[in-house]
Design goal:
four-stranded mixed sheet, binds zinc ion, 2 domains, alpha+beta
Length: 195
Amino acid sequence: MQFLYSTNEKPEAYLEGKGNYPDAPKRCPHKGCHMPVRLKKHGFYKRYIILKGLEGYIRIRRYRCPVCGRTVSMLPAFCVPGFQYGTEVIIGITREACRQGNIRRTVREWGQHLRQITRRHLLYYLSRLQRNRRLLQFGINEISPALIRLGAITGDKKWTQSFLEETRCLNPLQFNAEFHRITGKSFMSLYNMVA
Ligand SMILES: [Zn+2]
Protein backbone atom coordinates (compact mmCIF):
# COMPACT_ATOMS: atom_id res chain seq x y z
CA MET A 1 0.00 0.00 0.00
CA GLN A 2 1.26 3.46 -0.87
CA PHE A 3 0.56 6.89 0.54
CA LEU A 4 1.61 10.30 -0.68
CA TYR A 5 2.92 13.05 1.54
CA SER A 6 3.67 16.72 1.01
CA THR A 7 7.19 17.84 1.71
CA ASN A 8 9.02 21.15 1.60
CA GLU A 9 12.20 19.33 0.70
CA LYS A 10 13.24 19.63 -2.97
CA PRO A 11 13.58 16.50 -5.12
CA GLU A 12 17.31 17.28 -5.39
CA ALA A 13 17.66 16.59 -1.68
CA TYR A 14 16.12 13.15 -2.13
CA LEU A 15 18.46 12.39 -5.01
CA GLU A 16 21.36 13.21 -2.68
CA GLY A 17 19.90 10.92 -0.03
CA LYS A 18 18.86 13.86 2.18
CA GLY A 19 15.11 13.77 1.76
CA ASN A 20 12.80 13.95 4.74
CA TYR A 21 10.36 11.25 5.66
CA PRO A 22 7.07 11.44 7.52
CA ASP A 23 6.46 9.90 10.92
CA ALA A 24 5.22 6.34 10.92
CA PRO A 25 1.42 6.00 10.63
CA LYS A 26 -0.28 5.66 14.02
CA ARG A 27 -2.81 3.17 12.78
CA CYS A 28 -2.55 0.28 10.35
CA PRO A 29 -4.35 1.22 7.13
CA HIS A 30 -4.79 -2.36 5.93
CA LYS A 31 -8.17 -3.94 5.52
CA GLY A 32 -9.08 -6.41 8.25
CA CYS A 33 -6.44 -4.98 10.63
CA HIS A 34 -6.73 -1.22 11.26
CA MET A 35 -5.02 -1.73 14.62
CA PRO A 36 -4.28 1.54 16.47
CA VAL A 37 -0.58 0.78 16.75
CA ARG A 38 2.30 2.83 15.43
CA LEU A 39 3.87 1.15 12.43
CA LYS A 40 7.59 0.36 12.56
CA LYS A 41 10.24 1.62 10.17
CA HIS A 42 10.99 -1.14 7.73
CA GLY A 43 13.90 -0.06 5.56
CA PHE A 44 13.85 1.62 2.18
CA TYR A 45 13.51 0.76 -1.45
CA LYS A 46 14.90 2.58 -4.44
CA ARG A 47 12.68 4.26 -6.95
CA TYR A 48 13.63 5.93 -10.22
CA ILE A 49 12.19 9.38 -10.87
CA ILE A 50 12.33 11.68 -13.90
CA LEU A 51 11.66 15.38 -13.39
CA LYS A 52 12.45 18.39 -15.55
CA GLY A 53 16.22 18.42 -15.95
CA LEU A 54 16.66 15.93 -13.14
CA GLU A 55 16.55 12.17 -12.83
CA GLY A 56 17.82 9.34 -10.70
CA TYR A 57 17.05 7.06 -7.79
CA ILE A 58 15.51 8.21 -4.55
CA ARG A 59 14.90 6.21 -1.39
CA ILE A 60 11.35 5.50 -0.32
CA ARG A 61 10.72 4.54 3.27
CA ARG A 62 8.67 1.53 4.13
CA TYR A 63 6.75 0.91 7.37
CA ARG A 64 5.44 -2.36 8.70
CA CYS A 65 2.46 -3.12 10.89
CA PRO A 66 3.62 -5.12 13.94
CA VAL A 67 0.24 -6.86 14.11
CA CYS A 68 -0.55 -8.02 10.57
CA GLY A 69 2.94 -7.70 9.12
CA ARG A 70 1.83 -5.85 6.00
CA THR A 71 3.75 -2.83 4.79
CA VAL A 72 3.05 0.74 3.77
CA SER A 73 5.33 3.00 1.77
CA MET A 74 5.27 6.76 1.65
CA LEU A 75 5.94 8.61 -1.58
CA PRO A 76 6.79 12.31 -1.67
CA ALA A 77 4.11 14.20 -3.61
CA PHE A 78 6.42 14.98 -6.54
CA CYS A 79 6.05 11.28 -7.45
CA VAL A 80 3.03 9.71 -9.13
CA PRO A 81 2.44 6.10 -8.04
CA GLY A 82 3.27 3.72 -10.88
CA PHE A 83 4.98 6.36 -13.06
CA GLN A 84 8.62 7.38 -13.37
CA TYR A 85 7.79 10.84 -14.64
CA GLY A 86 6.95 13.22 -11.81
CA THR A 87 3.73 15.02 -10.92
CA GLU A 88 4.72 18.38 -12.39
CA VAL A 89 5.92 16.79 -15.61
CA ILE A 90 2.70 14.84 -16.18
CA ILE A 91 0.39 17.72 -15.34
CA GLY A 92 2.57 20.29 -17.11
CA ILE A 93 3.09 18.43 -20.38
CA THR A 94 -0.55 17.34 -20.75
CA ARG A 95 -1.73 20.88 -20.06
CA GLU A 96 0.69 22.28 -22.62
CA ALA A 97 -0.37 19.72 -25.22
CA CYS A 98 -4.04 20.61 -24.75
CA ARG A 99 -3.27 24.30 -25.03
CA GLN A 100 -1.09 24.01 -28.11
CA GLY A 101 -3.09 21.28 -29.80
CA ASN A 102 0.16 19.98 -31.24
CA ILE A 103 1.57 16.85 -29.61
CA ARG A 104 4.73 16.81 -31.70
CA ARG A 105 5.63 20.38 -30.83
CA THR A 106 4.94 19.91 -27.10
CA VAL A 107 7.16 16.83 -27.00
CA ARG A 108 9.93 18.63 -28.86
CA GLU A 109 9.84 21.56 -26.44
CA TRP A 110 9.71 19.42 -23.31
CA GLY A 111 12.32 17.09 -24.78
CA GLN A 112 14.94 19.75 -24.09
CA HIS A 113 14.57 19.02 -20.37
CA LEU A 114 13.37 15.41 -20.55
CA ARG A 115 15.60 13.44 -22.85
CA GLN A 116 13.45 10.35 -23.14
CA ILE A 117 9.96 11.77 -23.38
CA THR A 118 8.07 10.59 -26.47
CA ARG A 119 4.74 11.23 -28.13
CA ARG A 120 3.68 7.82 -26.90
CA HIS A 121 4.14 8.89 -23.27
CA LEU A 122 2.13 12.03 -23.82
CA LEU A 123 -0.73 10.31 -25.66
CA TYR A 124 -0.86 7.72 -22.93
CA TYR A 125 -1.11 10.37 -20.20
CA LEU A 126 -3.83 12.24 -22.06
CA SER A 127 -5.92 9.15 -22.64
CA ARG A 128 -5.53 8.11 -19.00
CA LEU A 129 -6.79 11.52 -17.83
CA GLN A 130 -9.73 11.33 -20.22
CA ARG A 131 -10.66 7.86 -19.08
CA ASN A 132 -10.36 8.88 -15.44
CA ARG A 133 -12.69 11.80 -15.84
CA ARG A 134 -15.28 10.54 -13.35
CA LEU A 135 -12.75 9.72 -10.67
CA LEU A 136 -10.99 13.06 -11.21
CA GLN A 137 -14.22 15.02 -11.04
CA PHE A 138 -15.17 13.18 -7.85
CA GLY A 139 -11.83 14.14 -6.26
CA ILE A 140 -11.76 17.77 -7.36
CA ASN A 141 -15.31 18.32 -6.13
CA GLU A 142 -13.91 17.68 -2.66
CA ILE A 143 -10.73 19.67 -3.17
CA SER A 144 -12.18 22.80 -4.72
CA PRO A 145 -15.90 23.65 -4.81
CA ALA A 146 -15.13 26.11 -7.62
CA LEU A 147 -14.33 23.18 -9.92
CA ILE A 148 -17.66 21.37 -9.48
CA ARG A 149 -18.97 23.23 -12.53
CA LEU A 150 -16.54 21.29 -14.73
CA GLY A 151 -18.90 18.36 -14.29
CA ALA A 152 -21.33 19.99 -16.72
CA ILE A 153 -18.92 19.83 -19.65
CA THR A 154 -19.83 17.31 -22.33
CA GLY A 155 -17.03 15.58 -24.21
CA ASP A 156 -14.18 13.95 -22.34
CA LYS A 157 -11.49 15.67 -24.38
CA LYS A 158 -12.93 19.11 -23.69
CA TRP A 159 -13.30 18.18 -20.05
CA THR A 160 -9.64 17.12 -19.75
CA GLN A 161 -8.52 20.38 -21.33
CA SER A 162 -10.67 22.45 -18.96
CA PHE A 163 -9.56 20.39 -15.98
CA LEU A 164 -5.89 20.96 -16.79
CA GLU A 165 -6.42 24.70 -17.28
CA GLU A 166 -8.35 25.03 -14.03
CA THR A 167 -5.82 23.10 -12.02
CA ARG A 168 -3.34 25.84 -12.77
CA CYS A 169 -4.66 27.58 -9.67
CA LEU A 170 -3.89 24.48 -7.61
CA ASN A 171 -0.37 23.51 -6.70
CA PRO A 172 0.24 20.22 -8.62
CA LEU A 173 2.02 18.61 -5.67
CA GLN A 174 -0.70 19.56 -3.21
CA PHE A 175 -3.31 18.40 -5.70
CA ASN A 176 -1.55 15.05 -6.10
CA ALA A 177 -1.32 14.42 -2.34
CA GLU A 178 -4.78 15.78 -1.57
CA PHE A 179 -6.41 13.78 -4.34
CA HIS A 180 -4.79 10.58 -3.11
CA ARG A 181 -5.84 11.26 0.47
CA ILE A 182 -9.47 11.83 -0.51
CA THR A 183 -9.94 9.04 -3.07
CA GLY A 184 -7.29 6.54 -1.92
CA LYS A 185 -6.09 6.51 -5.54
CA SER A 186 -3.61 8.29 -7.72
CA PHE A 187 -5.02 10.78 -10.23
CA MET A 188 -3.28 8.67 -12.90
CA SER A 189 -4.37 5.25 -11.65
CA LEU A 190 -6.28 3.00 -13.97
CA TYR A 191 -9.76 3.15 -12.60
CA ASN A 192 -13.13 2.62 -14.18
CA MET A 193 -15.68 4.36 -12.07
CA VAL A 194 -19.25 3.43 -12.85
CA ALA A 195 -21.66 6.34 -12.91
ZN1 LIG B 1 -1.94 -4.23 10.37
